[in-house]
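Long-time lurker, first post. I've been practising inverse folding by hand and with some scripts of my own, and I keep getting stuck on stretches where the C-alpha cells seem ambiguous. Below is the full C-alpha cell string for one chain I'm working on. Before anyone asks, I'm not after the true native sequence, just a reasonable design that respects the backbone. If someone could post their per-position residues I'd love to compare against what I wrote down in my notebook.
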C-alpha cells in the first residue's frame, strides 16, 4: 500500500447557503489540524434561498458528528422539535394521516411488527397502525422528550428531527465553520477558468480577485455556476412525474401552540406547508403553474395562515430533477446546485449531509478517479430516485378529483420503479428497499397505510402465531405506550427546559 499521492491542498466552496456552510463545517472539521485550506466565497448580491426549515432525523447525527451541541443549536436557530408530518386532505378532503420516523412497535417472535398488525387487521382488529407509533401518539398529545433518555420504555425507539430558521441556521454554521479555520470571502463570482483538460482552475470575482483551488464545491443554489454553467453537466428533468414547479412562501406570527410536527395540507393545485418555530411560523404553497396563477396561489396561502404575515409573500420557481453527474471533473455540486425535489418530505438538507458523508468515504486526490466518481454519482442518483418515488406515492394514491390538478393525477405516468414497489407491497405487505435506503420501512408503511393502499394478505409465516395471543400482546404494548406518553412534558415545557436562555 502506498502513501496518498498528490493530496488535495485547497478546497474552494462557491455559495454560502445551508449547503455551502454545511460543506465548510464538514471539511473544516476534517482538516482543522492540517494544512489543507478550505475557502468559501459568498455573494452579497445574491440572497440565500432561506426556506429549508423542516428536516429529518439524520440531521441530529450530522450535528453530533460535527461536535455541535444540540441545545445550543436549537436556541440559536429558534428551532422546535418534529416527530413527523401530518398530511391533511391528501387521500380526500377531511382525511388525515401521520408520517413518523422511528420504529413501529417491536418485533414479535422474530416477526416484523407491521406483519403482526396486518394479521390482526385481517382477523377484524381495526386498531390504527399509528396507535403503535411512539411519535404519532406523542404528536397527537403535543408531548416531547429526548428518546435516549427513555431507554427501556415504549418510547425508546422514537426518532425526531427539527424545524429551524434557515437564515439563523446558516449563520450558526458559518460561525462554526469559521471558528475551525474555514476562510470566508465575500465576493461575486463572475468568471470560471478551466484547465485544458476541462477541470476548474480558478474563479474570478467581480473585484478582479482570482481564487485558485484543487477541488471546487458548487453550492451556488439554483444558479449552478460551476456544475451547470461552467462544466455544462446536463439536468435530468423529472417534471413529468412531479409537475409542481413553483412555491409561494410567507412567514407569520405564531397564533397557536407550537406543534411538534409539520403540517402538509393538500390544496387545489398542490399542497401547503406550515412549520412552527419558537418565534414564528414558516408557510408555503407548492403548486404547478399549469393549474393556478401566482396570484391565486398566494391568495390560497394567505387564507391558510393563522397568524399575521411578517414578510411579503415571495414566489420561488423551481425545476424538479438533478444533474446527470453531481460530481464531475474536480467539482462536486451540493444543495440546490445539485438538484431539487419538492420539499414534501423535507429531504434537501439531508441530501447535502448525505452527499458530504459519501464524498468523505470516497475522498479523491488531485488525480481524476473515474471509479470513485461513477459510484458516487450512482449512489446519489439512487437517493433521488428513492425520494422521487416516495413523493409520487403521496400523490398517485389520492382519491381526490375535485380540481383539474387532482384529476390529472388519475392518469399521470408513475415511475416504473415505484410501480414495482407498489405491486410488490400489494402482495403481502413487503417492501422493496435498497440496503442504504434513505427512508426507513416505517415511512413507506405510514404513507401506504395513510393513503389506504392495502396488501392482499399478510406473510403466511404469521400463521405460526396465535391471533388471540398476538392481540393481547399488541394491546398491552399500546396501553403501555399511551401511559408512557402521558407522563412526558408538553412540547413547549420541554423546549423551555431544554433551551432556557432563549425562552
Ligand atoms: P442557496 O441558499 O440559494 O445559497 C446559494 C448561495 O450561493 C448564496 O450564498 C449566494 O450568495 C451564492 N451565490 C450565488 N451566485 C453566486 C455568485 N455568482 N458568486 C458568489 N456566490 C454566489 N430543504 C429542507 O431540507 N427542508 C425544507 O423544508 C425545505 N423547504 C424548501 C422549500 C422551497 C420552496 C425550496 C425552494 C427549497 C426548500 N428546501 C428545503 C431546500 C433548501 O432550502 C436548500 O436545499 C438549502 O437551503 C440549501 O440551499 P443552497 O445552499 O444550495 O442554496
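-- Answer (accepted) --
I ran through it position by position. Result:
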Amino acid at each position: 500500500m502506498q502513501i496518498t499521492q498528490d493530496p488535495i491542498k485547497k478546497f474552494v466552496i462557491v455559495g454560502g447557503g445551508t449547503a455551502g456552510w454545511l460543506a465548510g463545517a464538514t471539511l473544516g472539521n476534517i482538516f482543522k489540524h492540517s494544512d489543507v485550506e478550505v475557502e468559501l466565497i459568498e455573494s452579497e448580491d445574491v440572497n440565500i434561498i432561506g426556506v429549508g426549515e423542516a428536516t429529518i432525523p439524520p440531521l441530529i447525527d450530522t450535528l453530533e458528528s460535527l461536535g455541535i451541541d444540540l441545545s445550543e443549536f436549537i436556541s440559536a436557530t429558534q428551532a422546535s422539535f418534529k416527530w413527523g408530518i401530518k398530511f391533511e386532505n391528501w387521500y380526500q378532503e377531511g382525511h388525515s394521516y401521520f408520517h413518523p420516523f422511528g420504529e413501529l412497535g417491536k418485533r414479535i417472535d422474530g416477526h416484523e411488527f407491521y406483519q403482526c398488525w396486518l394479521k390482526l387487521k385481517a382477523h377484524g382488529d381495526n386498531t390504527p397502525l399509528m396507535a403503535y407509533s411512539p411519535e404519532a401518539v406523542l404528536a397527537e398529545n403535543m408531548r416531547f422528550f429526548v428518546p435516549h433518555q427513555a431507554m427501556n420504555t415504549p418510547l425508546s425507539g422514537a426518532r425526531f428531527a427539527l424545524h429551524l430558521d434557515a437564515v439563523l441556521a446558516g449563520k450558526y454554521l458559518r460561525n462554526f465553520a469559521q471558528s475551525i479555520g474555514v476562510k470566508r470571502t465575500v465576493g461575486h463570482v463572475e468568471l470560471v477558468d478551466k484547465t485544458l483538460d476541462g477541470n476548474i482552475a480558478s474563479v474570478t470575482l467581480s473585484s478582479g480577485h482570482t481564487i485558485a483551488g484543487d477541488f471546487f464545491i458548487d453550492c451556488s443554489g439554483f444558479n449552478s455556476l460551476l456544475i451547470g454553467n461552467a462544466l455544462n453537466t446536463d439536468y435530468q428533468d423529472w417534471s413529468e412525474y412531479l409537475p409542481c414547479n413553483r412555491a409561494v412562501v410567507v412567514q407569520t406570527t405564531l397564533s397557536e401552540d407550537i406543534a411538534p410536527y409539520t403540517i402538509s395540507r393538500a390544496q387545489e393545485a398542490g399542497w401547503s406547508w406550515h412549520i412552527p418555530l419558537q418565534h414564528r411560523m414558516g408557510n408555503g404553497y407548492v403548486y404547478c403553474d399549469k393549474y393556478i396563477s401566482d396570484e391565486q396561489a398566494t391568495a390560497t396561502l394567505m387564507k391558510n395562515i393563522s397568524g399575521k404575515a411578517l414578510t411579503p409573500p415571495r414566489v420561488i420557481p423551481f425545476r424538479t430533477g438533478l444533474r446527470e453527474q453531481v460530481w464531475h471533473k474536480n467539482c462536486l455540486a451540493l444543495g440546490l446546485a445539485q438538484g431539487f425535489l419538492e420539499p414534501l418530505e423535507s429531504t434537501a438538507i439531508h441530501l447535502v449531509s448525505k452527499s458530504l458523508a459519501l464524498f468523505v468515504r470516497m475522498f479523491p486526490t488531485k488525480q481524476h478517479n473515474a471509479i470513485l466518481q461513477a459510484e458516487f454519482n450512482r449512489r446519489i442518483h439512487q437517493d433521488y430516485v428513492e425520494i422521487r418515488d416516495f413523493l409520487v406515492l403521496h400523490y398517485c394514491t389520492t382519491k381526490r378529483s375535485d380540481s383539474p390538478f387532482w384529476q390529472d393525477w388519475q392518469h399521470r405516468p408513475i415511475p416504473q420503479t415505484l410501480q414495482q414497489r407498489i405491486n410488490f407491497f400489494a402482495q403481502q405487505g413487503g417492501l422493496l428497499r435498497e440496503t442504504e435506503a434513505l427512508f426507513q420501512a416505517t415511512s413507506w408503511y405510514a404513507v401506504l397505510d395513510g393513503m389506504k393502499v392495502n396488501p392482499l394478505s399478510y406473510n403466511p409465516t404469521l400463521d405460526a402465531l396465535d391471533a388471540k395471543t398476538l392481540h393481547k400482546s399488541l394491546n398491552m404494548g399500546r396501553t403501555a405506550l399511551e401511559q408512557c406518553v402521558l407522563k412526558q412534558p408538553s412540547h413547549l415545557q420541554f423546549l423551555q427546559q431544554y433551551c432556557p436562555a432563549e425562552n
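A couple of notes from the structure itself: The radius of gyration is 23 Å. The longest helix spans residues 370-396. Happy to go over any region you disagree with.
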